[in-house]
Amino acid sequence: MNVLSRLQDIDRRWLYLALALSCLVPFLVTIRLPVYVSPETRSLYEAIDRCPKDKVILVDSAWDAGSLGENWGQVEVVFDHMLRKGIKFIVISLDITPLGPQFADKVISKLVKTKYPYRKYGVDWVNLGFTKGDWQAMQQIAKDIRRQFKRDSRGWSLDDAKHLPLMQRVHNIDDIYMIYSVTYSPMENWIPFVHGVYGTPIGFGCAGIQSTTYYRYILSKQLVGMLVGVRGAAEYDALLYPNVRERQSLGTQLIVPQAFGHTAIIVAVILGNVGYFAARKGERKVGTRR
Amino acid sequence: MFIRDRYLVYAKILSTAVSSVNELTRIKPRNQEAAGRKTWTRTSKKHLLDYLLISWCNEHMEHANIQIFIATLLIAGLILHGIFTARRGGPLFIRRIPGLTEIDEAVGRATEMGRPVIFHPGTAEVQNIGTLSALGVLGHVARNCARLGTRLIVTTAIPVVVPVAEDIVKQAYQEEGRPELFDPEDIRFLAASADQLALATANLMEREKTASHFFFGSYDYTSLLLTEPGQRTGALQIAGTDQYFQVPFFIASCDYTVIGEELYAASAYLTREPTMLGSLVGQDRAKIVILAVIVLGSLGVTLGFGEWVSKIVGVYR
Amino acid sequence: MATRRRLIAAVTFLAGLYYFLEFIVPPIIPWRTVQGEVVKVSSKAIVVRRTDGQIVSVPIRDNIIAYRKRPTGAPERVEPKSLHPGDQVSIGPTTYLSDWITDVNNFFVVLGAMAWGMGLMSLWMVHSANIRKRKEEWYGSVLFFVAVAIGVVAGLGYGAESGVLKRLNDVVVNDVLRPMGSTVFSLLAFYMASAAYRSFRLKSREAILMMGSAFIVMLGQIPIGLWLTHRLPEPLWLPVMSQWILYIANSAAVRGMWFGMMLGAIAVGLRFWLSLERGAFFGKEL
Which of A144, A189, A263, C207 has the greatest CB tally within 10 Å of its CB? Predict the structure, then answer.
């Protein structure tokens, strides 16, 4: 067996080490790479940018630690956009994980602390917390949000004008401009039960692997846009901050390690195939191959 | 049921339905009030027709409009026709599905090695179609294991699956005359979340030195957490899922993979029951109808009569 | 045994029949539906101009429901009293089927929740047997019970504003569960690398096609793809080619797969509903 043919049998631990190192290096050395903004990210950005002043955006932030790497960046850039432009928003977490509201709160409090100290809870945004009910909850929220949520995540009644002035003008889907659902795999029921009935634009933020099933909704214009994994967050950040040095979102931080990781996997696959063909050639020479 | 009886039953149901509709629509409206407005009471057959025409292309997601109603009856009718035709007898052809054909070999391999078999029915709830199909495969695997005297371990993260799986495996062992081999402790609820279950199952694979792994059902991102450690133990792995995103992971790490609707066909394929085979034939006929509608729509949009097609079929957002 | 099977079949059919009828049967009795434009709304009646021009007064009763047509063309169920003049509406007595669906769903959720005890019982049986019989790594089962106890106590602090329980809850969620969840998820990256390395071999034409599209899509997702091809004409940029594969080729494949899977789901559902399913649970005909 020649040296090249051994490339098809590399111990997996070397692969893991190579992958770990390739993902680690960008954290130690600052590397900035240009980002190509995909059509689905651009259309989501433009849709959110068009939000009228008298309406709010409903963010269904239903992710937890498992998909933090992809979803944190996706909500961070959108919250950044909305807080910067003064677009009011309401955060909910539907069905998937009860930890969703806590993670959304962490992202918002970090942004408010570092960039937007003048934005206030109850005035610029409200977190209504976790709820269950799938498409029925979606319909309830659309018809009358108070039927699904009596209190926000901090325990204040939705009719409490002192603590939640924003909620005094949000009652049903007519007050909601758009719904942005961020989770590992957003629920497709938003599309028929909300967009199909009320025409409300829907945007998704999902893991990269799950995105393949949602592209057809963008083609049929049932989704207004989508952020795909870390790439989507980095692209959105590029639209928010054209100057690469100003971008600080998790998406921008993680896109370079992701790029290096992908490259490592591609190199490993190429090496495996080089080894495979070398072994086949060796077998033919020896005459063992039929 | 004989053919004659079946048609008699259909005819009775249809005639009862027609006469009920006639009876209910025969009532005439009452006289008008002095203000000239008609007091709403009951409407006539004409208004029923108006309702039906207006509900055409009604884009109601919660209820069927006429097109969906017709499509539902058509698809159900094709499937039921396939089933009843198959029951009349006659061979039905199903192409070979490699993953399902190798199930018996996998159980035999475990028997020869004297090691147990693991079955994982997915991470979705028991009412999920993928899980129900997986439980159908579990029955077949359990019968094979019972026949060959191989230990079968079932792991799940869904509590409701535990009694269902227990019943299936116990029944299989009883039917094969080996009830003493059944151990209820081998039907295990290992953890409440899919990723914890995956790690626990991986640990179980190494500890019990399982020889064959079956992963059938609906899976989320934890599919690779199950199959990759299994691959390392050298076990023969057969997976089947209806979750589109997990198919590549299964293909990369399992020896055989059953993709998409092949999972739903698994029960039919394994049992070769006429009912199940007939259902598959009916499904394929329904697929041809859908294909025809797609082709018609594509031609319509290309040649300029797309609006006519969308008016007939309806537009659903 | 046959009686038990028939009883199961009958109950299954009735349960499924409800959902089937709830979907098929319109929510308002069809021959008593009034469709048209709202002219006037009062506390006692809704006055509607029907499509044929007739003015009809619909008294508001408990069994009356209304569907208002949204600008999208889809109907939305509303309270009759919340209608406004000018609304396109369908109004009439309810068939009650849709009114019960929440309660019916809740019934099945409660039924399913009763099985939660089964899961805990299964865990209890396995781990207590491990400890009792001093099986290999029995101390792991001891740790299991300790972890369950801590989890239950920590869960009491969920939603609390302050206190020891809240701090315990924060530690368990933020400092234990969250990093462990991230760790488990990150295992996927390494497993994917080893699975891809082991299985992606150019053994056939289809494999070459698959590999080529995989490389284009993977490189198109990352900035390196743009860097490699930015000097070429735009249609040949890796991100642009990747977008074409995802939007056009992938969407076609996904739609085809979904059609097949949904038909399979309908067939399986129909077989279960009519108790035509054969196999593990349903060995014999009724």
Answer: A189
CB distance C27 to C77 below 8 Å: yes
What's the pLDDT band for B142 if we cut at 50, 70, 90? very high
Main-chain phi, psi angles of B88, to 5 degrees = -70, -15
What is the Cα–Cα distance from C60 to C43, expressed in whole angstroms?
A: 8
Cβ of residue C183 closer than 8 Å to a chain B Cβ: no
Domains of chain B from N-terminus onward: 63-93+274-317 (no CATH), 98-264 (3.40.50)
pLDDT per position as a tens digit, B187-226: 988 887 888 899 999 999 998 999 999 999 999 888 999 9
Chain A CB contacts of C257 below 8 Å? none
- All CATH 2.40.50 domain ranges of chain C, comma separated, are 26-96
CA gap C85, C52 in Å, rounded: 18
Q: Do B228 and C115 touch (CB under 8 A)?
A: no
Amino acid letter at A50?
R
Amino acid present at B154:
V
Model pTM score: 0.79
From the number of C-beta atoms within 10 Å of its C-beta (0-12, 13-18, 19+), residue B295 rates as: exposed
Q: Scanning every residue of chain A, which has its alpha carbon at the shortest distance from the alpha carbon of B248? A: A209
Amino acid at B272: R
* Domain C26-96: CATH class, spelled out: mainly beta
The whole-angstrom distance between A143's CA and the closest CA on chain C is 8
pLDDT one-digit tens code per residue, B62-110: 777 888 888 889 999 999 898 888 888 866 777 888 888 899 999 999 9
Contacts of B189 in chain C (CB under 8 A): 118-120, 122-123
